[in-house]
Amino acid sequence: MSHLQYTAKSHHIQWNMQQLSKICHQFYRDYCPDSLKHRHNVSLSKVSDKSLLVLLLLQAELGIKSQRHFYRICRFFSCGRLLERSRFNRRSKQLIWLVQLIRQAMNRQLSPDTIVIMDSFPLPLCHPVRNHRARIFEGVADIGYNASKQSWFYGFKVHMLVTLSGYILNYVVTPASVHDIKVVDDLLEGCQQSVILADLGYLSLELKKNLEQRGYHLWTPLRQNMESADKHNNWRLLAMRRTVETRFSELCALFDIEQTFARGLTGLQLRMEQIILAHNLRYFEMN
Prior knowledge:
The chain folds into two domains: 4-107, no CATH class; 116-255, Nucleotidyltransferase, domain 5 (2-Layer Sandwich). Strand 4 and strand 5 (168-175) form a beta hairpin. It is globular and about 70 Å long. The strands form two sheets. Strands 2, 3, 4, 5, 6 and 7 form a six-stranded mixed β-sheet that branches. It has a two-stranded antiparallel ribbon with strand order 1-8. By secondary structure, the chain is α/β, with parallel strands linked by helices. The relative contact order is 0.16. Helix 1 (17-31) packs across helix 3 (49-62), helix 3 packs across helix 12 and helix 6 runs parallel beside helix 12. The protein has helices spanning 17-31, 34-37, 49-62, 67-74, 85-93, 96-107, 184-187, 205-213, 229-232, 235-241, 243-255, 265-281, and strands at 4-6, 116-124, 142-146, 151-163, 168-175, 195-197, 217-219, 284-286.
C-alpha cells in the first residue's frame, strides 16, 4: 500500500475509468492470491477479474442500483460487452471476498489513535404502508423503528463504524428490529482505535464496562434527566458524534445507499462492499 496516501481532502474526487483501472490493477496485483491469479484456464476468460473490479467500482460511482441496467451500460465498454448477463452477475459476486481483502488492507493504513463513531441507519425495502405485506427477503428482514423519522419500516439496519473524517472502517447488516448494542462486538472486530463515540442508542453501563475491559473508551450522551447530564454532554463531543450523520447523508446523496434492488443476501452484500470501497477510495490519493 506504499502507493497510497491517506488524506481527508480528496473525498470529492470523481474517479474516471483510467484512474479506476490503475488503482484496481494495483489492488489485484498486491492482494489477490496466486492460486486465483493463476487458476486453470484463466487466460481464456473473456473478461479479467481486474476489469470486473473496475466495473463494480464504476457502478457504485455512477450510483446505479440495478445490476440489469448497469449490464446494459457495460456493453459499451470493451471489458464488458462480451459477457452474458447471468455470467456477469456470477463473476461479480465471486469477487466479494477480494473487495473485502482490499478494504481491510486500506483499514490498516489508518492511525490507531483516531477517534471512531458508531451509528446505524435504516435500509427499508418498501413503503411503510406495505410493511406487513412485503415478501422481499422473507424470513430474513423484519420490521423496525426509525427514531429519527418516527416511523416503522420493513427491511434491514446498517450499522457502521466511521472515523471523524468519514472513512468507513466496518459495517454490519442486521434485520431492522435488532438493537444497536447487540452488534457492537461484531462492529469492533479488528478495531485498533480506542475512543468510541456513540448516541443514546448505545447508552448502557454494562456495555461501557465490557468495552473498558477490552481497552475501549465508550462515550455516549446522557439523557437530560440523568445526573450531571449538562456537564457530561460536552457540545464539542456532541458535534463530533454528529459527523457520522453527515457521512450517512453523503452515502445517500452520492451512492443512494438506502435504496437497493437486490433480491438475495449475496447481491445485497456485493452492493454494500461496492459502495463502501468506492466511498473509501475518495480518502486516498495516488502518490
